[in-house]
Specification:
Number of helices of chain A: 10
Structural class of chain B: mainly alpha
Largest interface: A-B, 51 and 38 residues
Number of strands of chain B: 0
Structural class of chain A: alpha/beta
Strand order of the largest sheet of chain A: 6-7-8-3-9-10
Radius of gyration of chain A: 18 Å
Mean pLDDT of chain B: 79
Strand content of chain A: 25-35%
Number of helices of chain B: 17
Mean pLDDT of chain A: 89
Strand content of chain B: under 5%
Radius of gyration of chain B: 27 Å
Helix content of chain B: over 70%
Helix content of chain A: 25-40%
Shape of chain A: globular
Number of strands of chain A: 12
Distance between the termini of chain B: 32 Å
Order of helices and strands of chain A: EEEHEEHEHHHHEHEHEEHHEE
Largest sheet of chain A: 6 strands, mixed
Oligomer: heterodimer
Distance between the termini of chain A: 36 Å
Chain lengths: ~250, ~375
């Protein structure tokens, strides 16, 4: 369970102050939770604050009972992993070397047999076994994205936070990625929190949806509750109809 | 799929006549799916990988490990060759005489200084580039060299030629080191601690401060008499003969401690090279680690600069060559290659200058000329930094 309690973040640019929050919400354990909402709603800010990549101005966040501001970062790294959408490395790494860094919280850089096994599992889980000795700069965007996700899965944390993992992925790779994330939640018992832009991906692959708007949470609940025309129209400020598709509810907005 | 079934492949190439049966053998098993997803499922059931997997450490495969060892051994041999060349070649006294050993002793001091400078510059530059996540800058631009230039120029400006002498001595050496470290610690502390902590801003401010001090020095130099200027210029070229052996008992421990501390953090540096987000994600305190590393870098740079003067291009060149030669991201393995490369470049340049061109004291010219060409060649051949 991730508990977000009256969390605020202020950005000052010139005379203007943009405030995200106060946000109070809970992300349940297990399953996939999708953060959705229009641009600038504060989804990524919220996710990066939970992942302690961004400081909190007010309020508190607890992950599995640990306050993220007072718990040592190296201990949190065994509970919670977070991946931003843009990653740029100056060093040249192979996929396997990159995934190996996910084991740093446990081995501090001295990889053990168990680490190697976890690395192999994560690589296989994302179908990267054919590519594991390739350098990251030799991969396509989609393959690289999978390698990053493999790294956070190798970290073996209960909570996995991903900021727009479908960014720059085509239809096929998006579907594969979400399928694998859902499998990670179901088969490996992880709690996956993703920021998604496509409400239909959220509807199909997530178990819970948290909708944000103007820096606050406006709706949160199981997929069925959020997937209604009224709710989505209100969240996205654009007329949305929800129809029954062959694989579940579909939001139509164009 | 080829490397999943290596055995039949080998059969195919070695025995041409078995080609048909082998192909038929493959085509008669259509129920075996080769789609990656199914194979992964397969692997998960078995629970163990089929082929030997590895390469999550410093090297992706055995070949690059072997290559690293070859490079390490060759560099060591080259370093020894240049060192003994510098020691023994061209000694005017008969071997074994008192004068011979006296000259050899003086040359040994120079070699020790070269080794120190090579170590400082290479370790500092590699660490600095990792921490700043940028491979085209060097710690020299952070004002170390401009501060050195200002100190030297100001001494000559106020005291005349006597100023150069006034700056020699252990106390003065330690004071210069302290000033340079102090300046950079102030800069890092101020710019990396605050709310808008940002390494790019720190670099920019560092460069601007460096440029400002450079301008002040140029202004003072304009007002010097030609003879004073001449004396000063000799001090402003990086040269191991600038170093006096009385500094070494202080400089060596400082370098050793800073170097050991950086070495002890080498595994964390590997993580830092992946950027702030990944670093925090795996539980490394990025802010604190960055500042600690930068302070250690500034100690190394300050000692090196106070010892021999500015070596602007040297550290950058050595670091770039090191990345190409080592072929690994692991800092524990980068540093030895870096220090050896630095020593080979420096000692090699001195050897060529002293024994081929008979032009002592202008070694930075040959480092920048040859080094720059090697650098361009490597970049053009490999096509990346």
């Amino acid at each position: 369970m991730i508990t977000i309690d009256a969390v605020q973040k202020r950005y000052t640019s010139g005379a203007e102050t943009v405030t995200i929050g106060p946000v109070t919400t809970q992300i349940p354990s297990g399953g996939v939770t999708a953060l959705v909402g229009p641009n600038g709603a504060g989804k990524s800010t919220m996710l990066t604050m939970v992942g302690r990549l961004l400081g909190i101005d007010e309020g508190s966040i607890e992950v599995a009972g640990y306050d993220i501001s007072s718990t040592a970062s190296k201990d949190l790294a065994k509970i919670l992993s977070v991946l931003r959408q843009e990653n740029h490395f100056i060093t040249r790494l192979t996929v396997r070397q990159l995934v190996g860094f996910g084991r740093f919280p446990y081995s501090k850089g001295r990889l053990t047999k168990l680490d190697e096994q976890k690395i192999t599992e994560a690589i296989d889980f994302l179908n990267l076994d054919e590519l594991e000795d390739r350098y990251l700069d030799q991969l396509s965007g989609g393959q690289r994205q999978r390698a990053y996700v493999a790294m956070v899965l190798a970290q073996d944390t209960e909570y996995v936070l991903l900021d727009e993992p479908l960014n720059n992925l085509d239809m096929r790779h998006s579907v594969q990625m979400m399928g694998r994330l859902r499998d990670a939640a179901r088969e490996l018992g992880r709690t996956i929190v993703v920021v998604l832009h496509d409400i239909n991906f959220a509807a199909h692959y997530a178990d819970h949806i948290i909708a944000m708007k103007n820096g606050g949470v406006v709706e949160a609940g199981p997929v069925d509750e959020i997937m209604s025309g009224d709710v989505l129209t209100r969240v996205f400020d654009t007329p949305v109809q929800v129809i029954d598709g062959p694989t579940g509810p579909l939001a139509v907005y164009y | 799929m080829a490397d999943r079934h290596p055995a039949p492949q080998r059969v195919l190439t070695h025995h041409g006549e078995r080609r048909f049966t082998a192909v038929e053998d493959e085509s008669t098993s259509p129920e075996v799916s080769t789609s990656p997803a199914d194979l992964v499922g397969d692997l998960e059931v078995i629970g163990a990988p089929r082929r030997v997997r590895g390469g999550s450490g410093a090297f992706p495969d055995a070949r690059s490990r072997r290559r690293y060892l070859i490079v390490l051994v060759s560099l060591t041999l080259l370093a020894l060759a240049f060192a003994s060349g510098l020691l023994a070649v061209g000694n005017p006294m008969p071997p074994g005489s008192r004068g011979f050993w006296l000259i050899a002793e003086m040359r040994t001091t120079n070699l020790v200084v070269m080794a120190m400078v090579a170590f400082c510059q290479s370790v500092a530059t590699i660490t600095f580039q990792t921490v700043t996540n940028n491979r085209i800058i060097t710690p020299s631009i952070m004002g170390f060299e401009s501060l050195y230039t200002v100190i030297q120029t100001a001494a000559v400006y106020t005291l005349g030629v006597a100023g150069v002498v006034a700056l020699q001595g252990t106390g003065q050496f330690l004071l210069q080191v302290a000033l340079m470290v102090g300046l950079s610690v102030l800069l890092y502390g101020w710019l990396l601690r605050g709310k808008y902590a940002n390494i790019q801003v720190m670099l920019l401010v560092g460069i601007i401060i460096g440029g400002g001090m450079g301008a002040v020095s140029s202004f003072m130099q304009r007002l010097l008499t030609p003879s004073e200027f001449d004396v000063l210029t000799a001090r402003l070229f990086g040269s191991v003969t600038n170093a006096s052996s009385e500094y070494l008992p202080y400089a060596i421990p400082m370098i050793a401690i800073a170097g050991l501390l950086i070495m002890a953090n080498a595994r964390r540096l590997n993580v830092i090279s992946l950027g702030r987000d990944v670093c925090i994600n795996v539980g490394v305190d990025h802010g604190r680690q960055t500042i600690c590393m930068l302070v250690l870098v500034s100690i190394l740079m300050a000692v090196s600069t106070a010892l021999v003067g500015p070596m602007t291009f040297f550290g950058f060149l050595v670091a770039t060559l090191t990345y190409q030669l080592a072929g690994t991201h692991d800092h524990r393995l980068l540093f030895p290659i870096g220090a050896l490369t630095g020593f080979v470049v420096l000692a090699g340049a001195y050897f060529v200058m002293n024994h081929v061109f008979y032009a002592q004291g202008v070694v930075s010219i040959i480092i920048e000329l040859v080094g720059g060409s090697v650098f361009l060649l490597v970049i053009m051949r490999k096509g990346r930094l």
